[in-house]
Design goal:
60% strand; globular; mainly beta; 760 residues
């Protein structure tokens, strides 16, 4: 691997020498106040009509003819900077941008006209300002709930932070936090994500036209970066909400050279209920998050970053009596750590090397006097990756690299003991996953640009090997300066699979790897769209259509024991699926009023030979219509108002069409059980879902700190939206007949919340 990397570097350096008659302008674009790298900032040369964008570490490179040139540097929410230089040699130019006094931009799909000019499609950058501006439930800012408001992304159940992208399942979304995979990104059974908005710098959603550097999931990539830490001054922020409080601190370790960031959040539900518990009973629930990051500028060419995350949910009960002790504990959580080294080999060649560790564990412990029991599952990753960015010309960006991960799966571990007996049933599976990739973004003319990539994943489990080639391709053709059409194709493979007994997010969902029986899931997606900007890019619009075909999807018959089955591979069912639809996005970027409208018209179907008599059926989250409207109005620097309205057709579900009673023979006494005649798979629909959230924010600056008060109203018109439906029997007194009845369970009525936030 090292020899190959150095060979590629040598080739790149040779080509750079051939192009020596030109000069290269390179450097970093950063926040002037904090020193944070700005991802995706635009550096544009109007005279030559060429430009570049910063990468994930704020680095950019432009190779041009020797000349006197003017630069315009832009980043959403920051004041543009104009620079004039004489490019008579290679120049390193670091650029600092200042935030505008009032943040007017909420969300953008590929900053500064990238939505029109770049061949990328299906990519949306979500600034953290959107997370902080929109209404919340219980005062908890949640970036996943912002993602749910984008076209092509559907929410799970009522108030859930879970989401489903273009007809795919929950396990088809790859969630990365500083490059570490997060396997269960939810707290409180899916109501909140684990990501504390105060610790997050950037969020990118990719739902189509996947760059070759990403792989391992079928439907989407959510790439999240933590703040680097302010390297200029000490700074802090935090908040007190209805169920949790949080605090974030950041500052320089050595000004301009090194900085830190640490952020913590914890609920206090366990403390609130404690006074109401009976004597001798200790019970409750809480979750916490801890994010930390340090970074060091080792030299002008070298940066080092170390970041980590620790979070856990805990449900506990401890009852002590005179002779008896009963303790019950459920916990689940994630741990991750990422060490990264950036090195600039030349003004045209940038490299990043990462070492990554992440761990997810779920466990149940039970103690009843002398009886002890443990139920556990989890997954651990240890790996590394190398990524190179090469900029041969301003119109040509090549990204290539490779990755390797060693994975340890525990699908289920069951242990128990009494005074005289103990037992253990442990399943452990070891997996090796690697991949190499290359991605070439090339602007051929003012009108035509391509993004061509190839990824080659390699998977090993015992004697089972899978090797695939995943071609990726997108193309853009400009009709004029503000309008372009795009088309793309992507193949994705998924080698790990989530097994769940519920349509709700649950920590008891199990991850298993592919095997000789369980083949990798695979999808092929084609998409096309038209992108149009109006009034100097104040308004952005797009219409995208897509079709996705998936194979080797996994299901199982109802009632299958997922957790305690050592041979779960042999009981799984395998089928195929298809999803297609149209997505409309209209967004206003500037002014006191900002926001967006999103609408999705979609279909999602699956087919398994052993289910529904082999006939196709709608997937659980097949929703014909999904609409969202986001509105933010800044009255002035102190007052702002926000509103969110969502509407969607109901999810699909299977319900019994009849009930009958079956006697069990040879039982003494005779036993009769109730059985149900299940209807067609997902033939029925829940009620349509709609909700209006409102929020008003008041900000008061002080000499050395700033206070913020929020009033948020969740579900303002208190609609009883369906959470789930169950079947019960009801006696009809007129006919003296018991009939089955579907009963809807709703969760949250109108919920007002007052929260307090602060900065210093």
């Amino acid at each position: 691997m090292k020899q190959l990397a150095f060979a590629v570097i040598g080739i790149c350096m040779s080509i750079t020498t051939v192009l020596a008659q030109k000069h290269t302008l390179s450097g970093y674009v950063k926040d002037a106040a904090s020193g944070e790298a700005l991802i995706g900032a635009s550096i544009y040369v109007p005279k030559l009509k060429v430009g570049a964008n910063t990468n994930a570490y704020g680095f950019y490179s432009l190779t041009l003819d020797a000349d006197s040139i003017g630069l315009i540097v832009r980043y959403i929410g920051y004041t543009p900077v104009l620079k004039k230089i004489f490019l008579d040699r290679d120049i390193e130019l670091n650029i600092l941008l200042k935030e505008t006094e009032m943040r007017e931009v909420v969300v953008t799909g590929n900053k500064a006209k990238e939505n029109v000019d770049k061949p990328q499609m299906g990519v949306i950058d979500v600034p953290v300002t959107a997370v902080k501006e929109l209404p919340t439930i219980f005062g908890e800012k949640d970036l996943f709930k912002v993602l749910q408001l984008l076209p092509g992304v559907q929410a799970g159940s009522e108030a859930s932070a879970g989401f489903y992208v273009r007809g795919g399942g929950a396990d088809e979304n790859l969630v990365l936090l500083d490059e570490a995979v997060i396997y269960n990104p939810f707290h409180l059974a899916g109501f909140f994500s684990i990501f504390n908005g105060d610790a997050i710098k950037s969020v990118t959603l990719i739902k189509g036209g996947f760059p070759a550097e990403y792989g391992g999931r079928l439907s989407s990539i959510i790439d999240i970066s933590m703040k680097d830490g302010n390297n200029q001054t000490f700074h802090g922020e935090g908040g007190i909400g209805l169920i949790a409080s949080r605090l974030t601190l950041e500052g320089p370790i050595l000004k301009d050279k090194a900085s830190f960031m640490v952020s913590a959040r914890r609920t206090y539900l366990d403390l609130l209920i404690k006074p109401f518990l009976p004597k001798g009973t200790d019970a409750g629930y809480y979750f916490y998050d801890l994010n930390a990051k340090v970074n060091f500028k080792l030299s002008d060419k070298d940066h080092f970053y170390l970041s980590g995350y620790l979070g856990q949910d805990v449900v506990f009960t401890n009852i002590t009596a005179v002779k008896d002790t009963n303790a019950f504990n459920i916990s689940w959580g994630n741990k991750s750590a990422t060490a990264r080294w950036n090195h600039v080999f030349s003004p045209k060649l940038f490299a990043n090397t990462s070492f990554i560790y992440n761990d997810y564990i779920f466990g149940i412990t039970l103690q009843q006097n002398a009886v002890h029991a443990l139920l556990q599952s989890g997954i651990t990753d240890i790996g590394g990756k190398m990524d190179f960015d090469w900029y041969p010309t301003p119109l040509h960006h090549v990204k290539f690299g490779g990755t390797y991960t060693y994975q340890r799966f525990i699908p289920s571990l069951v242990q128990g003991s009494t005074d005289n007996l103990s037992f253990t049933n442990e399943q452990i599976k070891f997996v090796h996953t690697s991949a190499a990739y290359i991605n070439d973004e090339w602007t051929l003319t003012d009108k035509l640009a391509f993004n061509i990539g190839l990824r080659s994943p390699f998977f090993v489990y015992k004697s089972t090997h899978y090797f695939n080639l995943e071609p990726r391709f997108t193309a853009k053709y400009s009709l004029d300066k503000t309008t372009s059409i795009k088309a793309g194709y992507a193949m994705m493979n998924q080698f790990i699979h989530l097994l769940s007994n519920s349509t709700l997010a649950s920590p008891m969902d199990l991850w298993i790897p592919s095997s000789d029986i369980v083949k990798p899931e695979q999808s092929q997606q084609i998409s096309a769209g038209i992108f149009k900007n109006f009034k100097h890019d104040m308004y952005e619009t797009s219409v995208e259509v897509y079709y996705k075909k998936s194979t080797n999807l996994i299901a199982y018959t109802p009632g299958t024991d997922v957790f305690f089955n050592p041979d779960i591979d042999k009981t799984l069912l395998f089928g195929q699926g298809s999803a297609y639809g149209t997505e409309l996005f209209i967004k206003k970027n500037e002014g006191r009023i900002t926001g967006w409208l999103g609408y999705t018209l979609s279909w999602s179907n699956q087919q398994f030979a052993q289910l529904n008599n082999g006939n196709p059926f709608p997937s659980t989250y097949d929703r014909r219509h999904d609409f969202s409207a986001v509105f933010i109005y800044n009255f002035n620097k102190q007052w702002s108002f926000s509103a969110v309205f969502v509407y969607s057709t109901g999810s699909s579900l299977t319900i019994p069409e009849g009930t009958y009673y079956v006697p069990i023979l040879n039982s003494n006494p005779a036993t009769i059980i109730q059985a149900q005649d299940m209807g067609p798979m997902n033939f029925y629909k829940l009620q349509d879902y709609s909700r209006l959230d409102l929020g008003i924010k008041y900000t008061k600056p002080h000499k050395k700190w700033e206070e913020e008060w929020r009033l948020d109203i969740y579900n303002a018109y208190s609609r009883s939206n369906p959470y789930f439906v169950f079947i019960d029997s009801r006696l009809d007194p007129n006919a003296n007949v018991t009939k089955p009845e579907a009963i809807q369970v709703s969760l949250f009525p109108i919920i007002p919340t007052v929260s307090f936030n602060f900065k210093f």
